[in-house]
Every structure is written in structure tokens, then in C-alpha cells.
Amino acid sequence: MYTGITHTHFFVVTLFFILYLIKTFLLITNKEEALVKFTKITKVPEMIISTLFLLTGIYMLTQIPVIGTLLIVKLVMVLVSIPLAVVGFKKRKKPLAVISFL
After folding, report:
1. Residue 49 contacts residue 19 (beta carbons within 8 Å)
2. DSSP notation for 55-84
3. Which residues contact 60 (CB under 8 A, 6 or more apart)?
4. How buried is 59 (Cβ within 10 angstroms: 0-12 exposed, 13-18 middle, 19+ buried)?
5. Do 12 and 54 touch, CB atoms closer than 8 A?
6. Under a CB-based contact definition with an 8 Å cutoff, are residues 23 and 15 in contact?
7. Any idea of the CA torsion for 26, 28, 33, 35, to the nearest 10 degrees?
8. What is the pTM of this model?
9. CA–CA dist 48, 59 (Å, integer)
10. pLDDT in tens, 68-83
């Protein structure tokens, strides 16, 4: 089961990455109308992808015997990027959106 969850997590993270790559590109290139339209179209799928991202990640986190330093750094970076992305995309702040994407 762990292998299936790992593959699902990888797939969902890839979809999440692609969604935010597109949104970041649209924001940087000043395509406001396209960004609004894309965000409106992908709102529900993005919620589903984000939920799956979270649930599969939590499951995998509970299955490993030791939480290493690199994993802690990764988790902190992900948790910091979430509010940056929310503010960056809502207020159309390009630097925040780019930093959260990276």
C-alpha cells in the first residue's frame, strides 16, 4: 500500500507543481485576465489536488521510522511557502509568488 501512496503522492505533487508553474508564469507575464480565468477553472481541481497532496504526505510521514533533518527542512519550506503563495497570488505580488513557487 505504501508504494501506491508514494506513487499517488508523486503524481499529485507533479500536478500541483504544474498548476503553480502556469499560475506563476501568467502572473509574471502580466496576463491578469488569463490568470483569473485559469484560477476560476482550476479552483475545484486544485482543492482536490491540494487535499490529496496533504493526505498522502501525512500518511507517508506516519510510515517512516525516523524523521531526518532534511525532511524537517522540507516540511518547514512547504509550510512557509503556503502563506507566501496565498498572499502573492491574491494581491498579485510577483516576488512572493516566485519565492513560494521556488
Report:
1. yes
2. HHHHHHHHH-S---HHHHHHHHHHHHHHHH
3. 2, 5, 6, 9
4. middle
5. no
6. no
7. 40
8. 0.85
9. 16
10. 999 999 999 988 988 8
Picking from 6, 10, 8, the residue whose alpha carbon sits closest to that of residue 18 is 10
How far is it, in rounded angstroms, from Cα 102 to Cα 76? 13
C-alpha–C-alpha distance, residues 46 and 87, integer Å: 17
DSSP 92: T
What cell does 57 get? 504526505
Contacts of 38 (CB under 8 A, 6+ apart): 22, 23, 26
Helices and strands: H and E segment counts in the chain:
5, 0
How do residues 35-91 score in pLDDT, each as one tens digit? 999 999 999 999 999 999 999 999 999 999 888 999 999 999 988 988 888 898 888
